[in-house]
Structure formats: C-alpha cells, structure tokens
Amino acid sequence: MKFSGDYHTHSTYSDGHGTVKEMVLAAVKCGLAEIGLADHGPANIGTGIKNGKTLLKIQTELEELGLQNPGIKLLGGVEANIVSPDGFIDVEKDVLARLDYLLVGLHPYVIPQGGAGLSWIIGNQVAGIRRYKSRIRNQNTKALIGAVYRYKVLAVTHPGLKMEIDIPEVARACQIRNTAWEINTGHKHPGFSEILEAAASGVDFIVNSDAHFPETVGRLEYGAQILEKARVPIERILNAME
Ligand SMILES: [Zn+2]
Ligand SMILES: [Zn+2]
After folding, report:
1. What would the pLDDT profile of 180-237 be if each residue is shown by its tens digit?
2. From the CA of 209, how far away is ligand 2's center (Å)?
3. How far is the CA of 187 from the centre of ligand 1 (A)?
4. Environment of ion ligand 2 (residues, CB < 5 A)
5. In a 10 Å sphere around its CB, with 0-12 CB exposed, 13-18 middle and 19+ buried, how is residue 67 labelled?
6. Which domain range does residue 138 map to?
7. pTM for this prediction
8. Which of 5, 180, 233, 235 would be a feasible disulfide site paired with 34, CB 3.0-4.6 Å?
9. Is residue 138 part of a domain?
10. For position 176, which CATH number holds?
11. How confident is the model over 13-22, as pLDDT tens digits?
C-alpha cells in the first residue's frame, strides 16, 4: 500500500523541529504528491501556535513554496484542540474559512474555555487516579462528537490517545459526518483491536505521520501494515493509492 499524501505534520510554528520549507522539501524528497501542514492550535500549553494569524502566515509561506515546487500540492490546515465539553475548538471561524482543511484532536494539556471546560480538562489530567473514569470517558466522547458535528472535520487525530473515548460511538458520528479516523504512525496509534472496533462503524481512515521532524514526513508504514492486517479495504483509506 502506498500513500498519496501526509496531512498531519508540525513545523517550528508549533512544536515541530523543521521549518515549513524543510517539511515541504522533505515531502518532495520522499515523493509525496501532497503534504499538509497542521500545526497545533493555540490552546496547547507550551506547544501551540501563537494565534490564528500564524495559520494564515503559514498559508502564505506555502503559496510561495508552491511556486518553487510545482510537482507537489501544498495544503495548510491545523490540528485544532477541543476546548469545551460541547466541542468548540481553538481556531476562529474566519481563520478556518481560509484553511484547506481541519483536523481536530483531544489533548490533555490545553487551556480550556469556560468553567465547564476547566473541570473537564482537569478531570482528564487526573483520570488515572480518580474513580469517575467512565464519566470522563463520556465527556471526552461527547466533546469529540460535538466537534465533528459543529465543524467540517477532515479527520480526528489519534482518537483515544491519552484521552479515552467510546470508539464505536465516535466512529459512528465520524462515519455520518464523513470525517476520517486517523491512523497516527508517529504514535503507532490506534492499535489493531481499536481499529477493528472503529472499522465496524463503516468509518473511513487516513494515515498520517504526525511528523515533528523533516525525517519522519511520509513515514506511513505502520498504517499500511495495520490496516492490511485489519483487512480494511483500500477504498476506505482516504490517502491510499494501491
Ligand atoms: Zn495531536
Ligand atoms: Zn500532531
């Protein structure tokens, strides 16, 4: 199985170690037809972009790089954070409208929105030691589904990583909303049984590297192996080619 593009990469504008240009050149080098930059939204504590304007700056850089590299399609997106239990994200609508695509993900270390957001996020940070683990899981599930319904989301990043969710429930919502389930090769997540659980809903998949270094752009082998093992048909993998 080969892949046409890698849509989840980070640059030095968030916590990546390569500039936008270095990430693009890495994608050219490994022969991808498309590369997407999706830096962390501003709510990630210590690792997010400065603000929404940064995403527009990245878009401008990508446009210039596109002229110099006509053989590859460059896309500007974001890995937005869900910052409230009803699924609001940390990127303004007017910025979103100018991006090529939106990824959303649950991350435990974000600046939440409002009091309900605060207790939800704190709950997740202590979920391992608190007895109301299943309540937190329900809140995470609702938050993710809320975002999938509220926005036009290309894919949910690393679903269930560090923040537990009800996989069949979220996958069903993604299937209905045409949002893909990410196989994140950087984190080697999700694993085999979780993929089977998601696949049963009929959801589509996308394989991304979550590269934080130019060297890991396009390293998508884990996705090919695990999806083949799970017998997910190629038509259900957005960026698979053969
Ligand atoms: Zn992430
Ligand atoms: Zn990421």
Report:
1. 999 999 999 999 999 999 999 999 999 999 999 999 999 999 999 999 999 999 999 9
2. 8
3. 9
4. 79, 210
5. exposed
6. 5-236
7. 0.96
8. 5
9. yes
10. 3.20.20.140
11. 999 999 999 9
